[in-house]
């Protein structure tokens, strides 16, 4: 069984993605779409571990918090903020942990992307997780942007669940839009979905190039 699991986000929703050498998991569900705050990250990561995987590459759709991180930009974060939205894999002393993206696995992902795909990817940065499913207000984004580069609704929870299952975890985040208030234009759901659609094919091609180097 594959040692690598790829957990796809909204940018890959509905995409028929074949990744030889890797287990592909659609975190938002296959039968029906699960909203971000309804995803059972613990169950997903348990199933990944039970399938024989030891490492996970999470794919996240995010909003950019700086003007230079516009639609299509990629980032492999090295830290996160997830206040009050953590899943709890344990109800004993094991719940006291030091959360993080796995540094060795993360470095390997960045190196493989640059070698195999070649398009720019930011090495490091802070991912801020909000609960969702609503987007953030401009005032919230001003607060968040002082401490993070991208904002999303799933990656930090998935990272914590992966650690609880004994899995190394790293993520590549795809910027679908500038977060609400970063641009002078008012963000709309239509703009978000259009950015996600523009990213989908190019990112899927890059992933197909990347996975053989990581599997």
Account of the protein in words:
It is a single chain. The protein is an alpha/beta fold and 215 residues long. The chain has one domain: Rossmann fold. The protein has helices at residues 41-50, 103-117, 138-145, 155-164, 189-214; strands at residues 4-8, 22-26, 55-64, 74-76, 79-81, 122-123, 126-129, 150-152, 168-178. Strands 1, 2, 3, 4, 5, 6, 7, 8 and 9 form a nine-stranded mixed sheet that branches. Helix 1 packs across helix 4 (155-164). The radius of gyration is 16 Å and the shape is globular.
Layout: helices, strands, pairs:
Layout lengths: L3 E5 L13 E5 L14 H10 L4 E10 L9 E3 L2 E3 L21 H15 L4 E2 L2 E4 L8 H8 L4 E3 L2 H10 L3 E11 L10 H26 L1
Parallel strand pairs: 1-2, 1-3, 3-9, 4-6, 5-7, 7-8
Antiparallel strand pairs: 3-8, 4-9
If you compute it from the alpha carbons, what radius of gyration comes out, rounded to the nearest whole angstrom?
16 Å
- Principal-axes shape call: globular
CATH superfamily: Nucleoside phosphorylase domain
The domain count comes to: 1
What does the main sheet amount to? 9 strands, mixed
CATH topology, which one? Answer: Rossmann fold
Number of strands: 9
Q: Mean pLDDT across all residues, rounded? A: 89
Structural class: alpha/beta
CATH class equals Alpha Beta
CATH architecture: 3-Layer(aba) Sandwich
Helical residue percent?
Answer: 25-40%
Note poorly predicted spans: none
How many helices? The count is 5
Distance between the termini: 11 Å
Query: How much β-strand is present in the residues?
Result: 15-25%
Order of helices and strands: EEHEEEHEEHEHEH
């Amino acid at each position: 069984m594959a040692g690598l699991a790829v957990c796809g986000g909204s940018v890959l929703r509905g995409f028929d993605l074949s990744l030889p050498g890797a287990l592909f998991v659609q975190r938002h569900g296959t039968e029906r779409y699960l909203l971000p705050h309804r995803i059972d990250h613990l169950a997903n990561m348990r199933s990944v571990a039970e399938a024989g995987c030891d490492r996970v590459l999470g794919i996240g759709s995010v909003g950019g918090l700086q003007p230079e991180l516009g639609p299509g930009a990629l980032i492999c974060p090295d830290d996160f903020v997830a206040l009050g939205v953590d899943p709890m894999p344990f109800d004993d002393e094991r719940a006291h942990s030091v959360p993080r993206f796995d540094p060795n696995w993360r470095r390997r992902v960045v190196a493989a992307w640059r070698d195999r795909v070649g398009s720019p990817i930011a090495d490091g940065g802070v991912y801020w997780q909000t609960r969702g499913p609503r987007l953030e207000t401009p005032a919230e984004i001003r607060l968040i942007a002082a401490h993070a580069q991208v904002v999303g609704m799933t990656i930090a929870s998935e990272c914590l669940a992966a650690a609880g299952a004994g899995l190394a975890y790293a993520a590549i985040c795809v910027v679908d839009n500038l977060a609400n208030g970063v641009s002078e234009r008012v963000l709309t759901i239509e703009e978000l979905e259009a950015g996600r659609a523009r990213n989908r094919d190019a990112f899927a091609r890059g992933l197909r190039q990347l996975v053989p180097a990581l599997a």
